[in-house]
Write a structure and sequence with these properties.
238 residues; alpha/beta; 7-stranded parallel beta sheet; globular
Length: 238
């Protein structure tokens, strides 16, 4: 398994395999790419675009001319758009998808078979301020690993800009969810945070749960142990 960060600032945290920078947010805010970091670009739920277009005459006109149902026309448009992105991206294209393995087609026009022909890997964005029911996240990870035909990563929530301490998931919940999702066979986990300082607090919180970490050792074999070894390596670094 590989472990990474998904952050708002162009700084790398110690103890991770790779780093992803949010160069374009859903709000429309953009920052320059950073050397040595992958770029995350939001094209779904762009609120800036939505405000300037409540309705889309272009979509309505093209849909009526197509002769297709609304759902099928939207699927072809979404797939074609992602195909154009594929043509322009020189390196690996990793598609972030919403954590809905059942109705993504009806809700977003996303067809996983179409996307699997385009993407090099997937990142299922499982962001929540509570992971008190880890079995739920494990179930989603297991479902996506079964459905998707490319490597599957997941992203778990650590913090966002403006979060108060009571707003973020406890380290015990994050550790348990990481372990339970890891044993489904996913290929990696990203931790979503405002920045380096937030990740450092998160890492120290995971380290301090020594007895809890010990109890999790019997949750599974190699993937589980890889998560626990990750935290053990942080312990050596800090």
């Amino acid at each position: 398994m590989r472990f990474g960060t998904l952050v708002y600032e162009p700084k790398k945290s110690k103890g991770f395999d790779f780093h992803v920078l949010r160069v374009k947010q859903e709000t429309g805010k953009r920052i320059p790419p950073s050397k040595g970091m992958l770029s995350n670009i939001a094209v779904f739920a762009d609120t800036s675009t939505a405000r300037s277009n409540c309705t889309c005459p272009r979509c309505k006109n093209l849909w009526k001319k197509s002769g297709l149902s609304w759902l099928e026309w939207r699927r072809t448009e979404v797939t074609e758009y992602m195909s154009q992105i594929r043509e322009r991206v020189k390196n690996d294209l990793i598609m972030c998808i919403q954590p809905d393995p059942i109705t993504s087609y009806e809700r977003y026009g996303v067809d996983f078979d179409d996307f699997s022909k385009i993407a090099d890997a997937f990142n299922v964005v499982m962001l929540s301020k509570s992971y008190a029911t880890p079995w739920y996240w494990e179930m989603l990870a297991r479902g996506f690993k079964k459905i998707l035909k490319k490597p599957v990563y997941i992203t778990l929530y650590v913090s966002c800009p403006g979060d108060k301490p009571e707003d973020v998931p406890p380290s015990a919940e994050l550790l348990t969810t990481s372990v339970r999702c890891a044993r489904t066979g996913i290929d990696g986990i990203l931790y979503f945070a405002a920045g380096v300082d937030n990740l450092l607090k998160f890492q120290k919180g995971m380290i301090d749960n020594f007895e809890f970490r010990d109890r999790l050792k019997n949750y599974g074999k190699k993937p589980v142990q890889e998560v626990l070894e990750l935290v053990s390596n942080w312990e050596k670094s800090f």
